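Project standup — Tuesday

K.O.: blocked on the structure for the chain from last sprint. Re-posting the sequence here as requested.
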Amino acid sequence: MKITCKVGTLDDINERFDHMTDLSARKETWRAWKERAVRYFLEGKRRQYILQADGRNIGEAFAALTPDACSNSDRLVGPHTAYLFAFRVDEGLREHGYFTRLFEFMLDDLRGLGITRVTVGVEPRELRNKQIYRHYGFTEFVKTSFEEDPPNEPGEMPYRYLVEYYAKEL
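H.V.: unblocked you, prediction finished:
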């Protein structure tokens, strides 16, 4: 299998979000995320990174480049700091080191944009993800705050959850 990485295009964003919407029971939530992702991409506020296997998109990650492109942006995004999020690799293709390639590609690209520090967020109960971030050097605690996912149904309350944020210098 030939694994490649690239900076995402508008077509890539649409394809990935349509794919994830098809897989999810929370379709309205994914549609809201897609609308936001497209808007921020067109405004140059976010960058998408795509992981491909034999030319097929199998994973992604995003980088928020401006404070208004992510929630809780205080100390997470700034002139030389980007917030990394939405790390996804298709089920069945995890645990093969593919994400590491995408992560390294993303950091190289961000360095080229003048980014010298990156931040991530993780729910405290996601122990495996916390270990992964620590492995990648995210050891500086930044803050704890709440995030909200958009509701899936009209009248439904947003899903609110606690997130810990960590940073690493590039």
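K.O.: great, moving the ticket to review. The CA atoms of residues 47 and 63 lie 5 Å apart. The first helix runs from residue 10 to 23.
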